[in-house]
Design brief:
Helix content is 45%, strand content 16%. It is of the alpha/beta class. The structure holds nicotinamide-adenine-dinucleotide. Nicotinamide-adenine-dinucleotide binds next to helix 8 and strand 7.
Amino acid sequence: MSVPQEMSFRESVDMMFNRAVALMDLPPGLEEKIRVCNATYTVRFGVRLRGQIQTFTGYRSVHSEHMEPVKGGIRFSLGVNQDEVEALAALMTYKCSLVEAPFGGSKGGLCIDPRLYDEHELELITRRFAYELIKRDLINPSQNVPAPDMGTGEREMAWIADQYARMNTTDINARACVTGKPLNAGGIAGRVEATGRGVQYALREFFRDEQGMQKAGLTGGLKGKRVVVQGLGNVGYHATKFLMEEDGCIITGIIEHDGALVDASGLDVDAVQKWIAKHGGISGYPDANIIEDGAMVLEEDCDILIPAALEGVINVSNADRIKAPLIIEAANGPVTAGGDEILRNKGTVIIPDMYANAGGVTVSYFEWVKNLSHIRFGRMQRRQEESRHQLVVDELERLSADSGVGWQLSPNFKERYLRGADELELVRSGLDDTMRIAYQSMREVWHGRDDVHDLRTAAYLVSIEKVAASYRAKGL
Ligand code: NAD
């Protein structure tokens, strides 16, 4: 058997796309229209810092405008380049389509190591980058709506929103120009942890799929499953925290940029995260074995491997040594096309990025809707819901007393039943529903078609079919 060759991130995404469309019957030309990236804008701008002008390079790529606005995060990292941004924008198109978020795909990036700048400097740089994109409508509530990604978070999104508002003083929907904002600046409850929460919901749904479990050779539930995570940032931290605290998983390995921690009896994710926040890495962490060559820990024996840091970390050079029977791609593109082929041949089940990390864009969609409707979710119906529940409880208690049966509703039940849903509960419910439905649509194709052998191909088939239908409806 020939050894698969490695390719760039964008070529990898294109190859996976091509593998899926070969199984479809798309009209000539439409396939190409969906695959290509519509436009990529490159900007170079200067910011005066520490007494001299420093020049930065940034990108915003729009992959598909079959639905507008287009949506996708902004990444701050030294690895940012045009190929990467275009690959990530394409993934956004397929991701939004798969989870039925009504957006086209986009992505942005700034070539910068944010750790080298203080907060004030980062604000100057972010605002200047945002200014360049806003004046070209590459940030706009109805055309292009960014969100956080690697190296950015709530703080940067708040600066971007404020910059847009300053430049568009009469736009009543200004806050909808970006998502992932802090709650007090137009954000939504549950957005910060949404991608990690989505990874948890995805795994729960996978563990309800008996055929899928069989294909991975796994049995039982999530409880007691050994998990290795790469990257304890926003996504990796929240995913492992929820899996540990709520599903009983054991986190046996944490890989970070400066090495890895391993402990077969389980690592305390919160303690490790606090250590990293204070010391900048895992080095010196006292309560676990430290492995200097962190990437080696990807090859550790475990049940679930969660790459949640960078792209391309599982590739032709290490895929055959990966022991985990199940990989969930919390990061974008962590498995290269070459790595994917080796793993597929080995029978490893991969829950693909376009589904696994779609929790972020799903809750971003809710935030965008909230901003456009100018009202917090649950504000109108919460108390009304509570008073209707109170009616039922009063009636049950009256019936019980009148009939002399003497039933008592347990206080715990009463308290839980009476409480109307607040925004956080509604967001979680919407996210859970989205992750379940998207998984079921992939599962149907994965188990139902003889020519589909993996979840990634199934995900592409489901999502490309929807994008194609949208183009057809537009008359293209
Ligand atoms: P983040 O910046 O919060 O965290 C990334 C983590 O990876 C950091 O802790 C960093 O130290 C670590 N890291 C960096 N280089 C590493 C290396 N060589 N080995 C191990 N760890 C390393 O980023 P994030 O927002 O958690 O994003 C992580 C991935 O998830 C990215 O691929 C991103 O595109 C994807 N993603 C993020 C979101 C979101 O809502 N934030 C949504 C969808 C997808």
